[in-house]
Protein backbone atom coordinates (compact mmCIF):
# COMPACT_ATOMS: atom_id res chain seq x y z
CA UNK A 1 0.00 0.00 0.00
CA UNK A 2 1.27 3.42 -0.97
CA UNK A 3 1.43 6.06 1.71
CA UNK A 4 1.35 9.85 1.84
CA UNK A 5 4.38 11.29 3.67
CA UNK A 6 3.62 14.18 6.04
CA UNK A 7 5.73 17.38 6.10
CA UNK A 8 7.60 16.36 9.29
CA UNK A 9 9.30 13.61 7.29
CA UNK A 10 8.54 11.09 10.04
CA UNK A 11 4.77 10.49 9.82
CA UNK A 12 2.65 9.17 7.00
CA UNK A 13 -0.97 8.59 6.09
CA UNK A 14 -2.66 5.96 3.92
CA UNK A 15 -2.90 6.51 0.17
CA UNK A 16 -5.85 8.81 -0.71
CA UNK A 17 -5.68 10.50 2.72
CA UNK A 18 -4.32 13.94 3.69
CA UNK A 19 -1.93 14.90 6.51
CA UNK A 20 -3.42 17.43 8.96
CA UNK A 21 -1.82 18.76 12.15
CA UNK A 22 -3.81 17.68 15.23
CA UNK A 23 -4.46 19.63 18.44
CA UNK A 24 -1.50 17.88 20.13
CA UNK A 25 0.84 19.20 17.42
CA UNK A 26 1.37 15.71 15.99
CA UNK A 27 0.29 14.80 12.47
CA UNK A 28 -3.06 13.16 11.82
CA UNK A 29 -4.72 11.81 8.69
CA UNK A 30 -7.91 13.01 7.04
CA UNK A 31 -9.52 10.03 5.24
CA UNK A 32 -9.92 11.88 1.90
CA UNK A 33 -7.46 13.04 -0.79
CA UNK A 34 -6.30 16.72 -0.94
CA UNK A 35 -8.61 17.55 1.96
CA UNK A 36 -9.00 20.87 3.76
CA UNK A 37 -7.81 20.66 7.38
CA UNK A 38 -10.17 22.56 9.70
CA UNK A 39 -8.96 25.21 12.17
CA UNK A 40 -10.04 23.13 15.22
CA UNK A 41 -7.27 20.60 14.29
CA UNK A 42 -9.77 17.76 14.75
CA UNK A 43 -11.95 17.83 11.63
CA UNK A 44 -11.39 18.04 7.90
CA UNK A 45 -13.42 18.53 4.73
CA UNK A 46 -13.30 17.18 1.17
CA UNK A 47 -11.18 18.94 -1.46
CA UNK A 48 -12.55 22.36 -2.54
CA UNK A 49 -14.99 22.65 0.38
CA UNK A 50 -14.81 25.00 3.38
CA UNK A 51 -14.99 24.03 7.07
CA UNK A 52 -17.94 25.57 8.92
CA UNK A 53 -17.19 24.53 12.48
CA UNK A 54 -20.19 26.34 14.02
CA UNK A 55 -22.62 24.25 11.96
CA UNK A 56 -20.37 21.18 11.84
CA UNK A 57 -20.53 21.04 8.02
CA UNK A 58 -18.26 21.27 4.97
CA UNK A 59 -19.64 23.98 2.65
CA UNK A 60 -19.46 23.75 -1.12
CA UNK A 61 -21.45 25.24 -4.01
CA UNK A 62 -22.90 21.79 -4.80
CA UNK A 63 -24.16 21.13 -1.24
CA UNK A 64 -22.99 20.67 2.33
CA UNK A 65 -21.58 17.47 3.83
CA UNK A 66 -20.77 16.57 7.48
CA UNK A 67 -17.26 17.28 8.75
CA UNK A 68 -14.79 14.42 8.53
CA UNK A 69 -12.65 13.42 11.54
CA UNK A 70 -8.90 12.93 11.44
CA UNK A 71 -7.20 9.85 12.88
CA UNK A 72 -3.57 9.56 14.09
CA UNK A 73 -0.84 9.26 11.48
CA UNK A 74 1.72 6.51 11.90
CA UNK A 75 5.50 6.70 11.96
CA UNK A 76 7.19 6.13 8.63
CA UNK A 77 9.16 2.91 8.36
CA UNK A 78 12.77 3.80 7.53
CA UNK A 79 13.53 2.58 4.01
CA UNK A 80 16.66 0.72 5.15
CA UNK A 81 17.28 -1.28 8.32
CA UNK A 82 18.76 0.98 10.94
CA UNK A 83 21.87 -0.62 12.35
CA UNK A 84 21.21 -2.00 15.77
CA UNK A 85 23.30 -0.49 18.52
CA UNK A 86 26.04 -2.97 19.29
CA UNK A 87 28.18 -3.78 22.28
CA UNK A 88 31.83 -3.76 21.30
CA UNK A 89 33.79 -6.66 22.84
CA UNK A 90 37.20 -6.10 24.52
CA UNK A 91 39.11 -7.40 21.47
CA UNK A 92 37.79 -4.46 19.42
CA UNK A 93 36.98 -6.83 16.52
CA UNK A 94 33.84 -8.53 17.76
CA UNK A 95 30.47 -7.06 18.65
CA UNK A 96 27.27 -8.33 20.22
CA UNK A 97 23.70 -7.08 19.78
CA UNK A 98 22.58 -4.35 22.18
CA UNK A 99 21.43 -5.92 25.46
CA UNK A 100 23.85 -8.87 25.22
CA UNK A 101 27.16 -9.53 26.97
CA UNK A 102 30.54 -10.42 25.41
CA UNK A 103 31.96 -13.69 26.82
CA UNK A 104 35.20 -15.30 25.73
CA UNK A 105 34.86 -18.66 23.93
CA UNK A 106 37.31 -21.60 24.28
CA UNK A 107 38.98 -20.39 21.03
CA UNK A 108 39.80 -17.11 22.87
CA UNK A 109 37.49 -15.32 20.44
CA UNK A 110 34.43 -13.58 21.84
CA UNK A 111 30.87 -14.85 21.88
CA UNK A 112 27.60 -13.24 22.89
CA UNK A 113 25.48 -14.13 25.88
CA UNK A 114 21.86 -12.94 25.36
CA UNK A 115 21.16 -11.36 28.80
CA UNK A 116 22.62 -7.93 29.57
CA UNK A 117 25.34 -7.80 32.27
CA UNK A 118 25.50 -11.61 32.18
CA UNK A 119 28.01 -13.73 34.09
CA UNK A 120 30.40 -15.64 31.78
CA UNK A 121 30.98 -19.22 33.01
CA UNK A 122 34.52 -20.61 33.45
CA UNK A 123 33.91 -23.26 30.74
CA UNK A 124 33.83 -20.42 28.10
CA UNK A 125 30.72 -21.98 26.56
CA UNK A 126 27.88 -20.99 28.88
CA UNK A 127 26.73 -17.92 30.76
CA UNK A 128 24.18 -16.99 33.40
CA UNK A 129 21.89 -13.98 33.91
CA UNK A 130 22.97 -11.18 36.26
CA UNK A 131 22.64 -12.18 39.92
CA UNK A 132 23.31 -15.88 39.24
CA UNK A 133 26.49 -17.93 39.52
CA UNK A 134 27.54 -20.74 37.18
CA UNK A 135 27.20 -24.26 38.54
CA UNK A 136 29.44 -26.36 36.25
CA UNK A 137 28.50 -29.60 38.06
CA UNK A 138 24.75 -29.22 37.63
CA UNK A 139 24.89 -27.43 34.28
CA UNK A 140 22.74 -24.60 35.60
CA UNK A 141 22.74 -21.10 37.02
CA UNK A 142 22.30 -20.73 40.77
CA UNK A 143 20.79 -17.74 42.53
CA UNK A 144 21.81 -16.83 46.06
CA UNK A 145 18.28 -17.44 47.33
CA UNK A 146 18.48 -21.02 46.07
CA UNK A 147 16.83 -20.40 42.68
CA UNK A 148 18.10 -22.46 39.76
CA UNK A 149 17.65 -22.08 36.03
CA UNK A 150 19.24 -23.65 32.95
CA UNK A 151 22.37 -21.91 31.81
CA UNK A 152 22.55 -20.09 28.49
CA UNK A 153 24.80 -21.10 25.60
CA UNK A 154 27.12 -18.38 24.33
CA UNK A 155 26.77 -17.74 20.58
CA UNK A 156 29.68 -16.54 18.40
CA UNK A 157 29.95 -12.76 18.18
CA UNK A 158 29.42 -10.79 15.00
CA UNK A 159 32.72 -9.95 13.39
CA UNK A 160 33.22 -6.23 13.05
CA UNK A 161 35.98 -6.64 10.48
CA UNK A 162 33.69 -6.31 7.46
CA UNK A 163 31.30 -3.80 9.00
CA UNK A 164 31.09 -0.24 7.76
CA UNK A 165 31.38 2.03 10.79
CA UNK A 166 29.01 5.02 10.88
CA UNK A 167 30.25 6.26 14.26
CA UNK A 168 31.54 4.76 17.51
CA UNK A 169 28.21 3.05 18.30
CA UNK A 170 26.62 2.26 14.95
CA UNK A 171 27.76 0.21 11.99
CA UNK A 172 26.21 -1.21 8.83
CA UNK A 173 26.84 -4.61 7.23
CA UNK A 174 29.69 -4.94 4.74
CA UNK A 175 28.80 -3.54 1.32
CA UNK A 176 26.43 -0.93 2.75
CA UNK A 177 26.71 2.83 3.10
CA UNK A 178 25.79 4.77 6.26
CA UNK A 179 23.15 7.43 5.53
CA UNK A 180 21.67 9.92 7.97
CA UNK A 181 17.89 9.57 8.42
CA UNK A 182 15.66 12.62 8.87
CA UNK A 183 15.58 11.81 12.60
CA UNK A 184 19.36 12.29 12.75
CA UNK A 185 19.92 8.56 13.44
CA UNK A 186 22.00 6.39 11.09
CA UNK A 187 20.43 4.13 8.52
CA UNK A 188 22.05 1.61 6.15
CA UNK A 189 21.74 1.85 2.39
CA UNK A 190 22.31 -1.62 0.86
CA UNK A 191 24.73 -0.30 -1.81
CA UNK A 192 28.45 0.41 -1.59
CA UNK A 193 29.56 4.08 -1.58
From TrEMBL:
GO terms for cellular component: extracellular region. It comes from the Eukaryota. Keywords: Disulfide bond, Secreted. Residues 38-51, 121-134 form the Granulins domain. Its main location: secreted. It is found in: Secreted. Belongs to the granulin family. PANTHER family: GRANULIN (PTHR12274), PROGRANULIN (PTHR12274:SF3). This is GRN protein.
Amino acid sequence: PRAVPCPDGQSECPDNATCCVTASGAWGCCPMPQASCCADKVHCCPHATVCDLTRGRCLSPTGDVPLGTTFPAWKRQPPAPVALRQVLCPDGRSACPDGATCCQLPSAQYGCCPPQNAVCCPDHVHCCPQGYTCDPEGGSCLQEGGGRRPWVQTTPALSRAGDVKCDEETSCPDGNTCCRLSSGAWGCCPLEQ
